[in-house]
Write a structure and sequence with these properties.
about 90 residues; 4-stranded antiparallel β-sheet; 2 helices
Length: about 90
């Protein structure tokens, strides 16, 4: 699972996001947050609070094995059966 914003988020929005899913963030670049493959329930109203703090849309995405996400610095991560792996 990943959470993505249109652009980098500020400290207030980051604090809201970390409060919600902090222990599950494996990698982030301030705009893309890759989460561990633990089953996590994220409620719509919680993400609305994060989106309001960020003042931009937020996307929660589910991924299949083999999906690749590129971070802002060009680093890529692929979903494997054991979670995200840097490629």
């Amino acid at each position: 699972m990943s959470i993505q914003f249109d652009g980098p988020i500020d400290a207030e929005a980051r604090a809201e996001l970390i409060k919600l899913i902090g222990r599950n963030v494996l990698v982030d670049d301030g705009q893309n947050f890759l989460l561990s493959n633990e089953n996590e329930t994220i409620l719509q109203f919680q993400m609305a609070q994060v989106a309001n703090a960020a003042k931009q849309p937020v996307k929660v995405m589910l991924h299949d094995e083999g999906d690749v996400i590129e971070m802002r610095d060009g680093t890529k991560y692929r979903v494997t059966p054991n979670g995200w792996r840097k490629i």
